[in-house]
Amino acid sequence: MPGGWSDMADGRDEGTATRTSILVVDDHTTFAELLTGALSHEPDLHSVGVADDVESSVRLCAALRPDVVVMDYHLSGGDGMTASARILAEAPATRIVMLTGDPSQHLMETAAGTGICAFLPKDGSLATLLQPIRSARLGTMIVHPSLLTAAHTCRRADRTGNAPALTQREMEVLRLMAQGHSVGQNAKLLSITPNTCRGYVKAILAKLGAHSQLEAVATASRLGLLGDGR
Predict the structure, then answer these.
(1) For residues 24 and 18, what is the distance between their CA atoms, to the nearest angstrom?
(2) Where is the HTH luxR-type domain (predicted)?
(3) Which end of the chain is more exposed for a tag (fewer CB within 10 A), N or C?
(4) Angle (nearest 5°) at CA 205 between 203 and 206
């Protein structure tokens, strides 16, 4: 239906209150229907509606109050970045997962500044999408490695400035951040405490001049710190 549709009046009912509610924003009807159908088979996730352009996404997000918005970058009436900025201005706690097939360094850096929590390839598998949706509600930042590699390749010839010096441990934490792991997961993988891991994250953000993990990963990719073979 043009302009978006929803399958619930207010995005909440007694049976779904503890499940992660998701608004799908995509102007490709087949993709949107396949994704919402897949979500209906997940016991901890459920779709509250679908929007197909910028205006309907903003309107439905305000009405349905989803936990997570799965947002395609290419939309009618603008783009997913514009829609995300408007949604987050009204509801900053909303977690937005951006889908794109043609990433750029500028796009990822803009996303980091906007507050988008995940960047994923639209042509990825269902599993590639479902886990970040689950992690998004917990505040985990995720950028799929394939998008980082693509953006890094596009900008390799343009890189300017010198990369800051990171310690070996900071580089290990940075690479795990780029893979989308949480601080707790990183701490376990590195056999350190979560508090110690948070200290490394703070140091990385300071050295890269970043305000979030997503921005740090995007900046590190631009500077060539992550390379092509993580």
Answers:
(1) 19
(2) 159-224
(3) N
(4) 65
Domain map of the chain by residue range?
5-140, 160-223
Residues whose CB falls within 8 Å of the CB of residue 184, separated by 6 or more in sequence, listed in order = 194, 197
Q: Identify which of 137, 113, 226, 107 has the alpha carbon closest to the alpha carbon of residue 177.
A: 226
Residue 100 pLDDT more than 50?
A: yes
φ/ψ of residue 43, rounded to 5? -65, -20
Cα 59 to Cα 23, 53, 86, 195, distances in angstroms = 11, 10, 10, 40
What is the CATH code of the structural domain delimited by 160-223? 1.10.10.10
Closest CA to 176 of 141, 132, 203, 152: 141
Task: Find, among 145, 196, 144, the residue nearest to 169 by Cα.
Answer: 196
CATH number of 5-140: 3.40.50.2300
